Amino acid sequence: MEPENPMAGLLQQAQQMQQQLLAAQAEMAAAEVTGTAGGGLVSVTGNGTGEVTAVSIDPKVVDADDVETLQDLIVGALADLNTKRDALTQQKMGPLAGGLGGGFPGLGG
């Protein structure tokens, strides 16, 4: 009986990881993430791939004499959105990157 071809096993493992990566990327694109600031007075919604899809501003924070506060709230909501998106990315993609065993620069540990 011939020994099993180790390259065939590696190829199959790589194909499985590619399928898992594509599935995780699709989940990220379909995910909806919302960042908020000012106790929800400003919210920014986006998907897991970096696209901003909606902005909501409570009329209470619209003051022509205090535009800076509104600007700060928008920046804060965007920062919160990015933090939540990063957490989602780590949740969905982290296990896949770790599965590469550090064999590829920039992926895994």
Molecular shape: rod-shaped
Q: Assess the beta-strand content as a share of residues.
A: 15-25%
- Helix and strand content put the structural class at alpha+beta
Helical content band? 40-55%
What is the CATH first-level class name of the domain at 30-99?
Answer: Alpha Beta
- The CATH homologous superfamily name of the domain at 30-99 equals Nucleoid-associated protein YbaB-like domain
CA(first)-CA(last) distance: 37 Å
Q: What does the model show?
A:
Pfam families: YbaB_DNA_bd. Homodimer. The protein is of the alpha+beta class and about 110 residues long. The chain has a domain at about 30-100: 2-Layer Sandwich (Ybab, Chain: A). The protein is about 55% helix and about 15% strand. It has 2 helices and 3 strands. It has helices spanning about 5-30, 65-100; strands at about 30-35, 40-45, 50-55. A hairpin with a 4-residue loop joins β2 (about 40-45) and β3. α1 runs antiparallel to α2. The longest helix has about 35 residues, at about 65-100. It is rod-shaped and about 75 Å long.
Indicate the topology.
Elements: H1 6-30, E1 32-37, E2 42-47, E3 52-57, H2 67-99
Antiparallel strand pairs: 1-2, 2-3
Helix pairs in contact: 1-2
Question: Concise description?
Answer:
Pfam families: YbaB_DNA_bd (PF02575). The protein is an alpha+beta fold and 109 residues long. It has helices at 6-30, 67-99, and strands at residues 32-37, 42-47, 52-57.
